[in-house]
Give the backbone structure.
Amino acid sequence: MPEIRPVSDLRNKFTDISKIVHETLEPVYLTKNGYGDMVVMSIEAYEKLKVDYMIYDKLKEAAVEAKSTDIRYDFDEVSKEMREKLIEKV
């Protein structure tokens, strides 16, 4: 269940909000005059969210590219080539 607090709690109960976002890694939703106003989250949760979005964007890009061409790659061949390139660099 999401944690919803009035925006005044950010000033008056900052320590409580900080503890919640760090312990649960979930955001706290802040309201102003009864309506959603902003979200507070830990840096760790924010960085994870950014990585998740980046992965989603890359998968979406790959899906679009896959629709535009008939070329398909064999996993074993690609893995072998990547290993060889990594060995060359080491």
User: Anything to note?
Assistant: The chain has a mean pLDDT of 95.
